């Protein structure tokens, strides 16, 4: 733990992270203990310093509370640092910047070499961040200590200025001392150094002016005249005395050496134009820029490209650190590249700190750009040296590449991201050369490779080199064994970059054991994870932060993820039975069970999104009936019926929920062993209604509703009522549709369940459509579309788009109908939801038939008939009879009475087998059209009347979508309209 008093009171951990000490009195207590520099402070003295003449009721107890708060703030070291002794409280620490400052002053005064002395004084002054004890300097208990420290600082500043004058650094010093003199205008020694620096820099008039200003200020404020030494200096300046010039022996000699050319790139830099521009902009504004990113992302190439064309006065110097190791290696590498040796170089064997100081002194007054490449394995050495160089040499700029930040004051970070997909594809194709011809088929494989290699340029180049031998598909199919695949293909690169494994090995070797363990634990989350999930597998926030800083983990708060190649590397090192997998599975099972109740009610949106974020992680969890039960409703709402069925068939075969998912996917209607509760019974009924089987749904809905009401389950009651409303649509009971639908909508609205509101409103919209209230139907569907989009219910969005398309069809806007149905079909196809896709396809067929685009209509209806027959699997199914009727109407409009008759008779036979009066009436209406086409008007009208009576007897009114065909056929039979579309 380190403490700072040379400025605002501050505390840092050993690795430089700030420690927050809360509450003013606790900070004041810390300041008081630090003032005494390890000497005990009596409790009553501390209490007086903190509260003065207005102490709390029990100052001793209150002081003990503040001491406890201070210890807690200091963490595990708190009890060792803040100790109570017989003489009082004491803070045991020599890691205080004021103590370091005093030690550096002592070392500087004992140092004979002027350059070393200047460096030590510079280091001492660099510790100051503002006035000593800045936030408490008006308190009596720090006033004397702060004043003493300030006097020592000014004395050190004067000594530093005089040593630098002796070294011949007058030009830089003249610029730097102006602010210090303005801050301390009455310090004669400081003013004298300033005058000498100005004079030696050729600014004689300014030197005399500052003397005059000092003399007038001294007279005005104190009634005194300048001291004899300063007065003599003024006279010497007026005489231009030779003794004022610097000693030649101490002057820094100019360097004639120039940097060697930077390495030339053998290939173009793809997709990095914006990065180059941004790094150049940072270099203009900052003296230290660090380019960070994971191994293989292209940090070195970006750095070199960014400095191309830059021409600082003394050039750009590249220091490659990847092969260096050992104490003092960084300073030695920089000194070696720069070729810097001066007359003050000491004998071989001088310490690392001495070499760094001599290097810093040799850079004073020079203007150059230093590139430090691959710093991550020597990060602390690099940070210490860079901080020293930048403090000492104002004309120096540094561009570093590293997997983590240097954490030096003034550093500008530029994280390099992997290439976005289009640029990654371009790079891959360019590197593959003639071995790859891009086509629609190969483009898919290339995109797969680029995505799975995370857009890392080096990995893409290694993979591209394999295309000639394996082809692009062969490379893509072998990426599960990427470390064997991407090896031995890149000559001329450093060893650490010749294989993908070597790239990650290099990063892995820089990690501690704890960091490696944490990285492997994070790799068990294929979809990335939250900080909470990371902690569940033993990765605390501190470790997570360390890995982010080292570019091993990608942070996109609140989530964290590993690049796929790093994840694969880590998983290779884990045994299949490693306990971390159990920890991960337990966490996600608990999360799914915690989410389940929130998926019904006002927090539905929040928890749907949360489970969406964890999709890949939930799929990685070992299969269990508990997880299936927790996720079943989520799978259903998200339209992932196939996923739900596969999972349930594996862990809970034969259950009611598994059977429902089987029906929802068109996989058949298996035997159900029983219903564990009312919700399972309702869910199976819901699946029957999905298939249009109102008869099978009816008893289940009735039983479920009674059980829900008995148990006080309001959500279940609303769901059952929504099912009854939908069942009433099939039965033609419009009064029941409205009664059940409105009640369901009311309850779902009270509960705040948006999905439920969506279902109830959809049924009510269909009722409005039947009643000819197209405006209300459209409003309800648009509101449903908004809700579905808000909840990311893409399948429901598809259904609502198709429903709006049906309204457009009924109102005669065929272009709008076609566009809406096409959008719905694409959305359903993206979700692999065949039922929603089929609903949209039928709508497109209806639109095409109304527009007389008979070829398109026949193709679409033909596809629908094939799918519906496969779904029916030889059993009666309403969808088959509907499509047969549509094809029959189409043949009739084309004038093909024979084909139309055959299709309607087939539909009639299927309808009778199904026992559905609606389907029978629809076939009879189709046969009426055939009779009208053949001139058998009386028979046509009789069939229409028969179909209408059948509909009326069962309360099944003519659907709005079919009303146009019946009107057209009736007009044709009465001789008032030609054959063809209405």
Topology:
Blueprint: E1 2-4, E2 10-12, H1 24-35, H2 43-51, H3 59-73, H4 78-81, E3 82-85, E4 88-91, H5 97-110, H6 114-126, H7 140-166, H8 170-183, H9 188-200, H10 204-222, H11 228-239, H12 273-285, E5 288-292, H13 299-307, E6 316-320, H14 329-338, H15 352-362, E7 368-373, H16 379-392, E8 396-402, E9 411-415, H17 421-432, H18 440-452, H19 457-464, H20 467-477, H21 482-485, H22 500-508, H23 513-523, E10 529-530, H24 531-536, H25 541-549, E11 554-556, E12 559-561, H26 564-572, H27 579-595, H28 604-613, H29 615-620, H30 625-637, H31 641-651, H32 656-664, H33 678-690, H34 694-711, H35 714-731, H36 734-751, H37 754-770, H38 774-790, H39 794-810, H40 814-830, H41 834-850, H42 854-872, H43 878-893, H44 897-914, H45 917-933, H46 937-953, H47 960-973
Parallel strand pairs: 5-8, 5-9, 6-7, 7-8
Antiparallel strand pairs: 1-2, 3-4, 10-12, 11-12
Helix pairs in contact: 1-3, 5-6, 6-7, 6-15, 7-9, 8-9, 9-10, 9-11, 10-11, 12-13, 14-15, 15-16, 17-18, 17-19, 18-20, 23-25, 23-26, 27-30, 30-31, 31-32, 32-33, 33-34, 33-35, 34-35, 35-36, 35-37, 36-37, 37-38, 37-39, 38-39, 39-40, 39-41, 40-41, 41-42, 42-43, 43-44, 43-45, 44-45, 45-46, 45-47, ...
């Amino acid at each position: 733990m380190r403490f700072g008093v040379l400025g605002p009171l501050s505390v840092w951990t050993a690795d430089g992270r700030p420690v927050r000490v809360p509450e003013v009195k606790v900070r004041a207590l810390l300041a008081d203990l630090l003032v005494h520099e390890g000497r005990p402070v009596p409790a009553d003295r501390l209490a007086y310093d903190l509260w003065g003449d207005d102490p709390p009721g029990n100052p001793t107890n209150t002081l003990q509370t503040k001491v406890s708060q201070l210890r807690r703030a200091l963490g595990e070291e708190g009890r060792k640092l803040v100790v109570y002794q017989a003489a009082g409280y004491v803070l045991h620490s020599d890691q205080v910047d004021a103590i370091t400052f005093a030690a550096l002053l002592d070392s500087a005064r004992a140092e004979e070499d002027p350059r070393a002395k200047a460096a030590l004084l510079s280091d001492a002054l660099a510790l100051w961040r503002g006035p000593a004890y800045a936030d408490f300097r008006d308190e009596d208990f720090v006033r004397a200590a702060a004043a003493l420290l300030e006097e020592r600082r000014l004395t050190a500043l004067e000594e530093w200025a005089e040593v630098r004058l002796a070294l011949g650094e007058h030009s830089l010093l003249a610029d730097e001392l102006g602010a210090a003199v303005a801050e301390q205008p009455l310090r004669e020694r400081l003013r004298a150094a300033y005058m000498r620096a100005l004079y030696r820099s050729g600014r004689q008039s300014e030197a005399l002016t500052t003397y005059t200003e000092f003399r007038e200020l001294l007279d005005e404020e104190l009634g005194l005249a300048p001291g004899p030494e300063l007065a003599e200096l003024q006279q010497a300046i007026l005489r231009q005395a030779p003794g004022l010039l610097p000693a030649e022996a101490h002057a820094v000699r100019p360097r004639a050496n120039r940097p060697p050319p930077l390495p030339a790139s053998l290939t173009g830099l793809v997709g990095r134009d914006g990065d180059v521009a941004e790094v150049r902009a940072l270099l203009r504004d900052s003296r230290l820029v660090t380019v960070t990113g994971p191994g293989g992302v292209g940090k070195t190439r970006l750095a070199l490209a960014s400095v191309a064309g830059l021409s600082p006065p003394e050039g750009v110097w590249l220091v490659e650190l990847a092969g260096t190791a050992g104490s003092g290696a960084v300073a030695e590498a920089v000194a070696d590249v720069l070729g810097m040796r001066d007359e003050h170089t000491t004998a071989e064997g001088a310490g690392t700190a001495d070499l760094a100081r001599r290097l810093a002194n040799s850079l004073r007054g020079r203007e150059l750009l230093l590139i430090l490449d691959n710093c991550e394995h020597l990060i602390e050495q690099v940070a210490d040296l860079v901080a020293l160089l930048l403090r000492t040499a104002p004309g120096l700029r540094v561009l570093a590449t590293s997997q983590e930040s240097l954490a030096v004051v003034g550093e500008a970070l530029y994280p390099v991201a992997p290439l976005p997909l289009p640029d990654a594809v371009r790079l891959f194709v360019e590197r593959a050369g003639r071995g790859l011809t891009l086509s629609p088929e190969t483009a898919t494989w290339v995109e797969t490779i680029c995505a799975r290699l995370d857009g890392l340029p080096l990995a893409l180049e290694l993979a591209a080199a394999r295309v000639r031998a394996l082809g692009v598909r062969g490379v893509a199919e072998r990426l599960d064994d990427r470390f064997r695949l991407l090896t031995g293909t890149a000559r001329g690169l450093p060893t650490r970059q010749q294989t993908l494994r070597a790239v990650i090995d290099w990063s892995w070797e820089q990690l501690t054991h704890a960091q490696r363990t944490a990285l492997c634990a994070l790799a068990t989350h294929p979809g990335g994870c939250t900080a909470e999930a990371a902690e569940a597998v033993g990765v605390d926030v501190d470790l997570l932060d360390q890995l982010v800083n080292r570019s091993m983990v990608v942070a996109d708060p609140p989530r964290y993820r590993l690049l796929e190649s790093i994840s694969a590397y880590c998983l290779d090192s884990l045994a299949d039975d490693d306990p971390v997998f159990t920890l991960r599975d337990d966490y996600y099972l608990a999360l799914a069970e915690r989410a389940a109740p929130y998926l019904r009610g006002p927090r539905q949106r929040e928890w749907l999104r949360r489970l969406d974020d964890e999709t890949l992680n939930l799929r990685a969890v070992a299969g269990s009936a508990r997880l299936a039960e927790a996720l079943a409703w989520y799978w259903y709402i998200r339209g992932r019926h196939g996923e739900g069925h596969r999972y349930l068939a594996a862990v809970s075969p034969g259950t009611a929920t598994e059977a429902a998912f089987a029906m929802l996917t068109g996989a058949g209607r298996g035997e159900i062993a029983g219903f564990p509760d009312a919700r399972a019974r309702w869910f199976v009924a819901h699946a029957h209604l999905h298939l249009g089987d109102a008869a099978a749904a009816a008893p289940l809905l009735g039983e479920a509703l009674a059980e829900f009401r008995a148990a006080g389950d309001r959500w279940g009651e609303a769901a059952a009522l929504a099912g009854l409303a939908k069942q009433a649509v099939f039965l033609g009971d419009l009064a029941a549709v409205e009664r059940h639908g409105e009640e369901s909508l009311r309850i779902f609205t009270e509960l705040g369940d948006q999905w439920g509101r969506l279902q109830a409103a959809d049924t009510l919209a269909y009722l409005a459509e039947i009643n000819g209230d197209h405006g209300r139907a459209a409003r309800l569907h648009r509101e449903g579309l908004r809700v579905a989009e808000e909840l990311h219910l893409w399948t429901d969005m598809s259904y609502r788009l198709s429903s709006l398309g049906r309204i457009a069809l009924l109102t005669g806007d065929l272009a709008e109908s076609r566009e809406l149905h096409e959008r719905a079909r694409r959305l359903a196809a993206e979700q692999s939801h065949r039922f929603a896709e089929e609903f949209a396809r039928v709508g497109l067929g209806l639109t095409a038939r109304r527009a007389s685009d008979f070829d398109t209509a026949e193709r679409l209806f033909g596809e629908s008939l094939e799918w519906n027959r496969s779904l029916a699997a030889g059993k009666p199914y309403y969808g088959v009879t509907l499509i047969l009727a549509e094809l029959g109407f189409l043949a009739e409009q084309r004038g093909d009475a024979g084909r139309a008759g055959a299709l309607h008779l087939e539909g009639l036979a299927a309808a009778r087998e199904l026992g559905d009066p609606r389907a029978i009436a629809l076939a009879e209406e189709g046969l009426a059209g055939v009779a009208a086409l053949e001139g058998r008007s009386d028979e046509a009208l009789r069939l229409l009347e028969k179909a209408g009576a059948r509909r009326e007897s069962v309360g099944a009114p003519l659907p709005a979508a079919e009303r146009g065909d019946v009107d057209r056929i009736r007009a044709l039979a009465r001789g008032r309209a030609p054959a063809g579309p209405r």
